[in-house]
Amino acid sequence: MWDDGDKHGATSHPVILLDERLGFPAMSVAQPYLLLVDALETRDGNAFERVYSSMQEVAQERRAEDPSWTPMRKPPTDIAATAARPSEGSARPSQRGTAPTAVGMELLGWVERLEERLGCLKEIALPDEFPFDHSVGSLKQLETLALARYPDGRALRAAAGTDMGFIDGFAAYVGDTLLKVAAGTWGWDHNPEQGLPPQAVLQPDKRLDLPAVWPLSLLSAAVIERSGRVLADAHAALQSDVAA
Length: 244
What we know:
Order of helices and strands: EEEEHHEHHHHHEEHH
Number of domains: 1
Shape: globular
Helix content: 40-55%
Number of strands: 7
Distance between the termini: 40 Å
Number of helices: 9
Mean pLDDT: 76
C-alpha cells in the first residue's frame, strides 16, 4: 500500500500493511523507507536482520497457535491513518480518541532497544541512589531531574534533537512503569504534537478499554506545569482506571 506522507512534509513512499491476526493494531504498517533510514543512522549492519528476525518470531508464534495460518499478500491500496493526541499540559492520559494505529519499523526498533535506552538514562542522568524500581517514588525523582534539566517548554523542544539519551530514556522508564499497572503493549505515534519527535506510546490492555498514554506528553506536561506531581498523578489515575 502507499503512504502519501505526513503533515511534516515527509515524502510519500510504499508501506506494508501488517496482518492484524499477528497481534498488531488495526492498520499497522511497516515502512521499508524508514528501515533504510534507521540502517543508515545506526550503521551496525544489523538493522534489516533485526526487523526480519522480529517479524519471523511473531509469525512463528502465530503459526504455533494456529497451524492453518499462512501469510496472505493482498492487492495494493492507499493509507490515510490518523491518531488522536493528548492536550498540551494534561497530566492524565488523553481521554480523546484511541491509540495511534500507524506503526512501523520504529516500533520494532524501540522495543528491541528498550534496555539500551534505560541503560543510557542511568549513565547520563540518574544519581547512584536512584531506586530504578518502577515505584511512584522513582517517578517523582525522575520528574525532579527533568525539571532541573528543562527550565521551560521551550528548552524541552530545543532538546528534542540533541538530548535524546535523556528523552528516550525518560519515555522508556515511564512507559515501562505504567505498563506494570495497565499491562498492554507499546505503540508508535509518527506525528506527535508539541514539537516533539515521533514517539512511543502505551496501549493498555484492550480488555481495560483505556486510552493510550504518551510518556513524552507527560514529560511536556511536567515541564510546563512544574508541580513535581505529573507522573505520580498519571500513575494514580491509571491505577484508579484499572481498578474501576
